[in-house]
Design brief:
about 475 residues, alpha+beta, Rossmann fold, Uridine Diphospho-n-acetylenolpyruvylglucosamine Reductase, domain 3, 6-stranded mixed sheet, 13 helices, about 20% strand
């Protein structure tokens, strides 16, 4: 493996060339200030024009203020030496813990989820085509070991992908130093005359990755000196297998009935190659969940698969999992969303004149003609623009498209600190194109309008949409 500064630069350059990365486009760099991300930033600053590089630091607020301020100051100094501006993305105090509790996951996963949300939002605002992260060979080993002992799928055992893109975010994630070790990157930074910051949590073996890094990885290297190279080959072969399974899965999906739910004959499922059964089930789940964006645990897929594999044409059963229902009857199984009743759902009709709708509990929804003097905080929509609008309660998985991102309503409610028992009282305006607006101002939150209706309205006839408490009502009762 390379150890000199020239070799590190050569490896990053090789990566950019091999993956046909356009160096004329904007790059964001996930910059924690540690030796790994600093080495990546130094290398990219030599290979990409400086006015195209944007170091982004995410402050999770899970360490002491003193440590964080010292770290941020050193990061600014290092960026200044490279002629680059540092952008700090601040999370809210306690947001990581709240996310951990809400998603029922560990602090590590919650921090990672929020970190990528912040990074992708910043990339969208800046217009970055790429987001470079400093995942290295040590991270790869920790990831593979974790997935092996979690019983993950064969395809995922390949570990971290060198390049990742999806339809949710337009920014492509790059891992240019994935083949280099943590130690190599440290040496490179030292040779360049820089000092890096050390995250105190990296010493805490209460975090799973730290425990693997400090105890298991050294023992593996002692027995297998070529472990990094072996993992690189495993990554390549696993992704080749994953590509093959994806092609087989696409062919098998021809036997699935996709409608409002997803269904398949039990006989057709039994005829599938066992290696693609998980993939088919995930595709069926993703089809019905596409409007909500929820994730399904691998163990839940295994439960459904195991039940199907031992079933016969005479079997009948129902499995409820994560807001969905899987049922088998008369040799046919289907996967659908669990029915969730509306708290209220009111058609707005085709009459867009002024109106008031009493939502009970002292809450009134109003539509009035807009004027120049109207309260600028109220939501304005061009008159007649909505198609078959309805006013309804929020549902699990509801999302609204805001500028540069799509956000779960549940996340907005949490940020606004609206109690869970009041969230079903928050009106959601929707038309045939999706959610138009959400009204949280009357409960201490905010009114938000989806991005596609934020058009210049000067000189156009507009309506103003708002929600208020009638007669100063101070309590909203849970229905």
């Amino acid at each position: 493996m390379p150890t000199t500064d020239v070799s590190v630069l050569s490896e990053v350059a090789r990566f950019l060339d091999e993956h046909r990365v356009d160096r004329a486009k904007k790059f964001a760099v996930a910059f924690s200030g540690g030796s790994d991300s600093l080495s990546l930033l130094i290398a990219l600053s030599s290979l990409v024009a400086k006015d195209l590089l944007y170091p982004l630091y995410v402050n999770h607020r899970i360490r002491s203020t003193e440590e964080l301020n010292s770290e941020i100051e050193l990061n600014r100094v290092n960026c200044q030496k490279l002629g680059l501006p540092l952008t700090v993305l601040d999370l809210q105090q306690g947001q990581v813990t709240q996310t951990s509790l809400h998603r029922r996951c560990g602090i590590e996963e919650a921090a990672r989820t929020l970190r990528y949300e912040a990074l992708f939002e910043a990339c969208a605002n800046i217009g970055c085509a790429y987001l470079a992260t400093a995942h290295n060979a040590d991270d790869q080993m920790e990831t593979v070991l974790t997935r092996v002992f979690q019983g993950s799928s064969i395809a995922s055992i390949g570990g971290i992908e060198p390049l990742r893109s999806d339809f949710t975010h337009h920014t492509i994630v790059l891992r240019p130093v994935l083949l280099l070790s943590h130690r190599q990157l440290q040496v490179f930074v030292q040779q360049q005359g820089f000092f890096w910051s050390e995250d105190s949590t990296n010493k805490d073996d209460g975090y799973q990755r730290n425990a693997i890094r400090h105890t298991i990885s050294p023992a593996i290297h002692a027995q297998f000196p070529q472990a990094y190279a072996a993992l690189a080959r495993l990554n390549l072969r696993a992704h080749e297998i994953a590509a093959l399974l994806d092609r087989m899965t696409e062919q098998a999906l021809g036997k699935v009935d996709f409608g409002s739910d997803a269904g398949m004959a039990l006989e057709s499922f039994h005829a599938l190659e066992p290696a693609i059964r998980d993939n088919v089930l995930f595709k069926m789940y993703n089809h019905i969940e596409k409007s909500r964006g929820s994730r399904l645990r691998y163990a839940s897929v295994q439960r459904v698969r195991n039940q199907l594999e031992v079933s016969t044409e005479q079997s009948r059963w129902i499995i409820h999992s994560g807001g969905t229902v899987v049922q088998l009857s008369q040799g046919y199984f289907s996967w659908s969303l669990e029915a969730v009743p509306y708290n209220f759902c009111i058609s707005m009709g085709k009459d867009f004149s002024a109106k008031e709708i009493d939502l009970e509990n002292g809450v009134v929804f109003s539509v009035v003609p807009g004027t120049v003097e109207s309260d600028v905080r109220k939501l304005r929509i061009e008159a007649g623009l909505l198609v078959n609008p309805v006013l309804r309660s929020p549902l699990h998985g509801d999302k609204i498209e805001l500028q540069g991102k799509t956000v779960l309503l549940s996340k907005l409610f949490s940020e606004w600190k609206i109690p869970a028992e009041l969230q079903l009282c928050i009106p959601v305006l929707e038309d045939v194109h999706g959610i138009v607006a959400v009204f949280g101002d009357f409960l201490g939150g905010r009114d938000r309008l989806c991005n596609r209706y934020k058009t210049p309205l000067v000189g156009r006839v507009t309506n103003i949409y708002s929600v208020n408490k009638r007669n100063g009502s101070s309590e909203i009762q849970k229905r």
